[in-house]
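protien #1 (seq + structre)
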Amino acid sequence: MGKKKNKGIVDNTVVNIDFPRTQFRQVKQMDHMTMKRFIENVYMQGYDKAVERTKDVREDIKPDKMLADISQIKGIGDKKLAEIAKIVNSYLGCAKVEEG
């Protein structure tokens, strides 16, 4: 019989996880500190992959253009736009409101 791969589903995306039996045995025998380092390593690998996968998406976001488009919505004045810009800035760290 062939080896099965565990599949985790994250945001409706199937992720193939390779966790061979030998590694499972090693994990079972780990002490507290070794297990902690192992988990931190797995976490950082996932974090690095997520950063790499979302790199293009982050580069496509143009906060200034987004705010310019929002300002065209009827009922959004300078005060509301400034509040929206604060929220956008807190998430993206780069949005500025141009007076106009």
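ok now protien #2
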Amino acid sequence: MRTVPETYLAGEDDLPAVAALAAEARDDSPTGAQLGAQETDRLLEHLSVLLAAGGHVLVAKLDGQVVGVVLGRVVAAYLFAQHASLYLDMLFVAPRARRHGVGHALLRAATELAAQHECHDIYSAPVPGNRGVQRFLARLGFAPAAGHRVASVAALQRRIAAEAARDGAPAGRRSARGGLEDLIARRRRARSVMESGPIDMRPVGGGAPSRRRPAKAG
């Protein structure tokens, strides 16, 4: 008889097992070195902060052991979104427990959590490089939504300073008013082209020679 996974919202007592799974997820990814620290104490600290800030940790148990986890945050409606969403920071099932319905059970619990908070959408950020999770989400209807770009603070500061110096203005002192005026001017130029109709491409003063009508005989 196949064991049915048990899912529930984790508490403080479950966090050590969740931290161990998070470390396992890091090792399971080809880009694991980019995912941050693996030390259990640091992972426990992050998980405690997530719970204290109103985040959600869903776990799945199989045969009495925690074998799957979802870390989620409810993102309220904001300027570019009219409705709340559930954002899944991590979805991971231990390799030994895969193909036992654990992933489906976790997402079922996540959809129930989203419905409780009146979320319209669920966003997922799979562990980088984990193609198995990518395929799993795609089968369940998750589609690409947007691409993230990342830059370190130090690198971004250097690049902004370099571009500001190139443009002849001290870093951090470029006029916001000047940038706005430049944007307005460019929009006006574009609008004037669109409203003026076809553009006469003939050189000024160098149009095609006119045909002179022959003088009528007196």
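Helices lie at 15-28, 40-52, 102-116, 131-139, 153-166, 176-195.
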